[in-house]
């Protein structure tokens, strides 16, 4: 007996194509979501690494900041520790023992003259770039000489607060060459760094991310007992 050959009806073909289209659409959405999550994680990792590197570099120089008392000898150099308050973007000049040699057997010491400041970000008019200048020549010009390098992009705020060991109070400015802090270092420095990071809710937008770190200075004078009660940790506004 011959059995009749039966093919798919038009309705069955349409239903099969619809099911395949739905499966393909769901697979595409899942794949695109995974790719977006991967891209966001890569951007987030790069951003966190960049912020951590900038804070580590700044913290190392602050922790090992020093001031020399030999200012009257012939051919002596003058070290400074100056913080200029610029509202949300401060400037910092200091002498530090935190220089690290990059080449083996190079004729370099630990001393360095370091400057931190911000400049307008050429890629974003609403943000700034945290810059660093480091020179091994310590002289009477703390804001000159030495190579310049960017530390962090997308900076919205770079604020420094300084703890006075004598009064136990936090201040916004410091000048070791002036009459208020004559050749003195602060006991500690609080760093508030606000950077523009990828927004998890909108991949095309940026959101501010705040990093706060307090660095005690190794070569500063200890905090007076009478001032300890007033040396509470300042809140990052």
What does this protein look like?
It is a single chain. The chain has 237 residues and is an alpha+beta fold. The protein has one domain. It has 2 helices and 9 strands; from the N terminus they run αβββββββββα. It has helices at 10-63, 225-228, and strands at 81-84, 91-96, 112-121, 124-135, 148-163, 170-171, 174-175, 188-199, 202-216. Strands 1, 2, 3, 4, 5, 6, 7, 8 and 9 form a 9-stranded antiparallel β-sheet that branches. The longest helix has 54 residues, at 10-63. 23% of the residues are buried.
Q: How is the biggest beta sheet arranged? A: 9 strands, antiparallel
C-alpha-based Rg, rounded = 28 Å
Q: Which class of secondary structure composition applies to the elements?
A: alpha+beta
Strand content: 25-35%
| Helix and strand sequence | HEEEEEEEEEH
What is the arithmetic mean of pLDDT? 81
Low-confidence stretches: none
**Portion of residues in helices?**
10-25%
Number of strands: 9
């Amino acid at each position: 007996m011959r059995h009749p050959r039966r093919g798919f009806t038009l309705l069955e073909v349409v239903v099969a194509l619809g099911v395949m289209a739905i499966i393909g659409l769901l697979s595409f959405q899942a794949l695109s979501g995974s790719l977006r999550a991967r891209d966001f994680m890569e951007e987030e990792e790069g951003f966190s690494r960049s912020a951590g590197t900038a804070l580590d570099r700044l913290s190392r120089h602050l922790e090992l900041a020093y001031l020399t008392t030999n200012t009257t000898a012939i051919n002596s150099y003058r070290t400074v520790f100056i913080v200029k308050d610029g509202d949300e973007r401060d400037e910092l000049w200091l002498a530090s023992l935190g220089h690290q040699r990059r080449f083996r057997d190079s004729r370099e010491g630990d001393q360095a003259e370091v400057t931190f400041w911000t400049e307008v970000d050429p890629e974003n008019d609403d943000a700034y770039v945290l810059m660093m200048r480091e020179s091994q020549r310590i002289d009477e010009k703390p804001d000159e000489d030495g190579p310049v390098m960017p530390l962090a992009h997308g900076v919205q705020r770079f604020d420094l607060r300084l703890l006075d060991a004598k009064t136990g109070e936090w201040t916004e400015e410091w000048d070791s060459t002036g009459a208020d802090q004559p050749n003195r270092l602060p006991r500690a420095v609080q760093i508030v760094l606000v950077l523009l990071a990828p927004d998890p809710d909108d991949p095309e937008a940026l959101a501010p991310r705040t990093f706060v770190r307090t660095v005690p200075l190794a070569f500063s004078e200890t905090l007076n007992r009478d001032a300890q009660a007033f040396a509470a940790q300042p809140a990052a506004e």
